[in-house]
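Model it.
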Amino acid sequence: MRVTTLLFAFTLAGCAASPGAPVAAVEPPAAAPAEHAVPAEHAVPAAAETGYEQALRFARCMGEHDEPVPEPVVGRPLQFGTPVEGTSWMRLDTDAFMACRALLPATWPVRADPADVARERPFGECMRERGFAWPEPDADGMVAYPADPMSYQTPQYRAAEEACRYLYDDPANNAPR
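Modeled.
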């Protein structure tokens, strides 16, 4: 898992990472707009559930909105929809995602490769210097990334990412947006 892959995925407007790419986070997810309210049968106080239970309700809600996604697996990135044909990117502007978005947990644990974490540490430090709580792996090698991919769509995040972009170690991260 490379932050470079992850960041490229989230800098594309309306796209999310593929099932094999990490989902990083920087800000807590915003509430869903009123026109995309969570169905009553899914409305359960988030504090009463684990992150896994919240992610499972999100996956089930997506299926009920004709956008089936696999059940969550701790350590692997969440899937947010069906990949766009010919790519590994997923659209985030679907009615299903918008209807179910509020069900996402605040963060989701993704297993990180220690070599990638070490190589990308300067980027994380740069992001933290700009006010973003870039996550570090826990003792088990899990990184608690924000679950909502829309976290990467804010002007503040994009400005910080642009300022730290020079720290990427992979030229693929500088692909056109």
